[in-house]
Amino acid sequence: MSKRIYLDHATSTPVRKEVIKAMDSFWDVNFGNPGAIHQEGILAKKTVDQSRNKIANYLGAYSNEIIFNSGGTEANNLAIFGVVNRLNEEGRKFEDMHLITTIFEHSSILKCFKYFEKKGVKVDYLEINSDGIVDLRQLEKILTSQTVLISIMLVNNEIGTIQPLNEVTKIIRNFKKEQGKSKFFPIFHSDASQALLFLPINLEKLKVDLMSFDAQKIYGPKGMGALYVRKGIEISPLIIGGSQEGGLRLGTENVPLIVGFAKALEMVEQEKVSESQRLTKLRDYFIKKVLEKIPGTRLNGSPERRLPNNVNISFPERGNEFLVIQLDQKGIACSTKSACLKEKSSYVIDSLGHDEGLSKSSIRFTFGRSTNKKAIDYVIKSLVEICNPIIEI
User: Which residue in 32, 160, 249, 272 has a CA-CA distance of 20 to 30 Å to 334?
Assistant: First the structure.
């Protein structure tokens, strides 16, 4: 095919034309600082407030619960450091705190937990089953009176499996009731960076305390995201020196990107159901054909409980970097794992409990608005040519 096929939407999505248009005037015409009290500043602040209100309405939150920042990684860091540092500042020792997360979280979660583990905080890492779903029974068993924070992602960024957050929040509520604990602890955080494009998210119904979002995953601008902080939850900022974003994310608000985030989410909400249905059909077709045509291949993660656009397949005895390069030469962009990691193997695939070779041969294909059946058929044909060069298609 003459036109390249982009199947790495989990890493980043192209900014929509409607989003670019919405941001356009805020670069050089309406460029004021929202902290200024002159006309230009007032207009900028009004624009930020309108965008915040729009995003909050779509997510089922109050506007002052949405804290803008640079993206999913910063949001995750703010959530975890914010909770633990706040407690430490109030006099609670690190060794008197207990944190819980899963073994296959994004690295921006795991490295935060590892950091505090070195400080003396007790950390437990939940196992997942062979389908990539968190072990809820283990969660029930390891909750203690010292548990202050739990972080479980809504959707895994590599294999696209959807975690049962409603069941997690139920376990936490029951634990609080049995223990007679404060309504705030343990605080529950979830990384939803990969979820916003396809899953319905109503923060009031989900009952999470903190949730991370990333605009570049929903056809919005890079360098923009948000952390939802439920009313009553107190965390410490990562940056000091101002009063922006309720004192939790200091520095001048990036007005164009905030506008772009709000516009991108508006477009997502209009198309979420139809696009999910369309991509689910392509996803299932792609999985079926690849597993049929290439012997020994294996789907990683639940066939059903996964995002509509995510396909993660291992090609045993074939190096994943070699496959990605071969596909790239054929005009196809895909990935081996999260773009944040440089290791050849994937700890996410390893966490499924499969043979080690599967993590070194796994490829992630993530579809998007530009993906159609013609493109998928070409990718299937290319994979067969690379993996089974002597087999006629």
Answer: 272
